[in-house]
Amino acid sequence: MDIEKLIDEVYAEVVRRIGRKVLLFFSGTPLNIDSILSDLKKAKKYNICYKSVLSDAAKKVIGIDKILSISDVLEEKDDITTSIKEADFILVASLTRNTLAKVALGIQDTKVTLGLAEAFMFNKKIIIVKDGADFKNQFRISKGMTKNEAYNRMLLNYFKILESFGATLVNSSDLFDVIKGIFDLNFQKRSYKNDICDDTKLNSNVVTLQDLLNIGKSKTIYIKKNALVTPLANDYIMDNKIRLIREE
Questions:
Q1: Distance between CA atoms of 107 and 118, rounded to whole angstroms?
Q2: Which secondary-structure segment (H or E) carries 166?
Q3: Residue 142 class from Cβ within 10 Å (0-12 exposed, 13-18 middle, 19+ buried)?
Q4: CA 25, 28, 29, 35: dihedral to nearest 10 degrees?
Q5: In sequence order, what E strands does 69-117 have?
Q6: pLDDT tens string 136-177
Q7: Quick one: 106 exposed, middle or buried, by C-beta within 10 A (0-12, 13-18, 19+)?
Q8: Among 75, 160, 162, 204, which is least packed by CB within 10 angstroms?
Q9: 170: helix, coil or strand?
Q10: CB 124, CB 168: distance < 8 Å
Q11: CB of 20 closer than 8 Å to CB of 88
Q12: For residues 71 and 89, what is the distance between their CA atoms, to the nearest angstrom?
């Protein structure tokens, strides 16, 4: 079997066993929702477990059945709080201007705005798909809905407030790549080094024998705190007296 294919298969199996948790928030805009849900479904092959919180408007505009096709839907306050705490990150998959303004101003009058306020207060990693509220969105531009500069500046200010809270704003077209980047789902491909290196850092979630061969003759290797080391890689480390350090 090709070594790259073998590595990919081992990695996919490890990811399936590890599992990841993402809490989704939906407010009442259908803009680009089909492509967003498609990307979320694609990401599920990496054993990402979703739970979702919907505003009442989202249930009507998007449809709860669409969300149930990828995720359980949470209704109780305690369940939402627990899921916020357990999630690897929070994803606001659809954002209305109404929700944008309320969250920026600290208003907590729906399950979505209350949940997002808690997520910010817990200092969780939060990704926001901004399409539904963005005045730069091509749909709104094509409809002539972006001509009031003062109104646009107001929306931009709300976005800046969310960024100041720690949120990352993305376009729906970049969503899948963003999820991959957060979970480091792609292997870091490296060239073989003939020279002797003092130390090397590996960013993979799974350290394989091929990873070690690719970095040459380093005697000190830094890896992620929770990275897994395959048995063959561990044997290579022992045989070559390599110092393995897990970063905090």
A1: 11
A2: none
A3: exposed
A4: 40
A5: 72-73, 89-94
A6: 988 889 999 999 999 999 999 999 999 999 999 999 999 998
A7: exposed
A8: 75
A9: strand
A10: no
A11: yes
A12: 15
Q: Where are the beta strands (DSSP E) in 72-156?
A: 72-73, 89-94, 126-129
- Given a contact cutoff of 8 angstroms between Cβ atoms, the answer to whether 204 and 25 are in contact is no
Report how far residue 85's alpha carbon sits from residue 75's, in angstroms, rounded to the nearest whole number.
16
Task: Tell me the C-alpha distance between 161 and 122, whole Å.
Answer: 17
pLDDT at residue 195, as a whole number: 39
Tokens of 91: 């994803």
Distance CA 198, CA 34 (A): 49
Q: Element (H or E) spanning 119, and its range?
A: helix 111-121
pLDDT lower than 70: segments of the chain: 1-18, 184-199, 216, 248
Instruction: Indicate if the alpha-carbon torsion angle 40, 44, 48, 49 is positive or negative.
Output: positive
